[in-house]
């Protein structure tokens, strides 16, 4: 374990002790990889992906890594985590076994496969720890290069803390912006667009980021000649090299088996990034991967004999041994003793992890067997139940699933027999207790969740008129937000100098500065990444994606990283990022999409809010800033110039999240919609009144969460009919809305007619002025759909239109 030291000169004896400690960590990590693979192949573990071959470079990285720093890496960094004291042998194997006890497996409580690392940023109540007093690792994800966008934000946070004053509790997150964000990636993954997008953005922003590329020349079985131009990532990134008077990167190269040069290189990189906020790329080449990519195969299948021989010779641990002997740090005998002790320590740690994993399950197995035996003794299905008992008893390494399967199958056979009630209660209790280990913390379970915020209505002057452009409501509310919350910053394409494309931020950059209201390049994925990383370090970023259609560039980052962060850390990390965008009805394929079904099904873990006007949107921003959860706010693209009343209490009024609003009461049919389409629904309802049809109109306001008070079913009890109007494609968000109303709220009980939907066409709207009318529900479409439903009810009163 690396301890932070003062800048004092080491004696040779001190140096020797430190090197031997490093070597011991490397050997322990290697033994974990070797034994871990055996655990997979013998069936105790499900899958393994290990960090062997990268041990020595990661030791060097750990020596330059200080308290307050953050890592954003990938699944080869086990040695680094051990070296900074954040991963033990027992925890390593607990992760391999998928132990759901966070005390045993603190990285993800068994929710991610081994090799995915994290530290705890939060206390049990969801409040922040002092991140400057610990070494930090953001939670890993598996998607290739997916760690890159977040890395950018983690680094940018240091720049914000150094240059923006007045941020509350800043001392818990930064010491004058001196923290580095350390990234790691495999050489093959540098082919991903996310890598290049992040590298370019970091070079522009000039943030303290040190990016390590572990280059072992392969991406699984595919050689670098198929991956990278010139087979050399640092060679093709030469254009990013920082020169006098320019921005860019410092680019360093080092061999992955040269301990001394690695240590010197990482110290140099840290000095550059930490002091000057200049990003650094370290290309660590001549790295090996002794066991191949994962436990699913062997590298002997795709590496020739010469390559395999070279890898044996230039294995980093072997080379470190030779170096230690050459400069008299240790004798061969001393090294052999370290190796032998490492094997013993790893074996003991593995056994402890396995016992901690299996013993509670065996205890549950015995408890159920005892209960089943009581039932079986008097059951008419005794023979079958005894078979279940025999199969379960013979299983020496049972899974929770296997225990529950035996219990549930027995219950079917004991429906009218003694012991049924006790078994039923046991199953219910066991399922409730166990399910939490797999399903908790998708959203915040602290007092800072969105439901803790109470509605505060806008306050208006007595003579208030609807004569203010909606965009001015947003602008003045953002002004109040920036004053009230110094930790809030907003950034996006055209968000700065011109105050966004719709002037909702007009004048804000001039008033609050270029760091808090910032323009960025056209790079949606890393805009999201900036927000995620900064939110993980205590800031309250608002990441602006110019149009809803462009969100698709960032949907993978939203889905795989942001939406899963709290879940995959079992509530030990959070990123309360607000994503601002605009969408819905306008002209053209690329500026009027409403892919809501795609979004809501990809981002569970993020709240999706769909305000119909700008006052409602402003209220959502105010609400979210009192919560600790991420959210997407979709403003109505055609609503910025529509007139609204100007509130008096900017920054304070709050739109409730998950609560619907009834815009018009009615007796004949319940209409459910959201966003821009509501204006058409309201107009159609006026016209329907003229023919004797009285509609009730409900504005969903948010899709995730959905109608937490179940007000829609209360409306349906009165009207007995339902129509969902949606501008997404058929079967998009409308299918989700129906599922929530019919299945979750049991509204089918009160329906006298088939529930129906009215959606956009399956294609996107054409550009021409008529494109919207012929592509998405129009007032006439809504009128005729409702009229047709009422024709079914009373054809004499509402004769066919066609």
Explained architecture:
It is a single chain. Helices cover 41% and strands 11% of the residues. With 802 residues, it is of the alpha/beta class. It starts with 11 loop residues before the first helix and ends in a 9-residue tail after the last helix. Mean pLDDT is 95; it is low at 1-5. The strands form five sheets. The protein has a seven-stranded mixed β-sheet, with helices on both faces. A six-stranded parallel β-sheet has the order 2-1-3-4-8-7, sandwiched between helices. Strands 17-19-18-21-22 form a five-stranded mixed β-sheet, sandwiched between helices. It folds into four domains: 26-120 and 127-329, Thiamin diphosphate (ThDP)-binding fold, Pyr/PP domains (Rossmann fold), CATH 3.40.50; 359-438; 466-645, Thiamin diphosphate (ThDP)-binding fold, Pyr/PP domains (Rossmann fold, 3-Layer(aba) Sandwich), CATH 3.40.50.970; 663-793, 3-Layer(aba) Sandwich (Rossmann fold). The longest helix has 47 residues, at 332-378. It is globular and about 100 Å long. GO terms for molecular function: branched-chain 2-oxo acid dehydrogenase activity. E1 component of the 2-oxoglutarate dehydrogenase (OGDH) complex which catalyzes the decarboxylation of 2-oxoglutarate, the first step in the conversion of 2-oxoglutarate to succinyl-CoA and CO(2). Its cofactor is thiamine diphosphate. One of its GO terms (biological process) is branched-chain amino acid catabolic process.
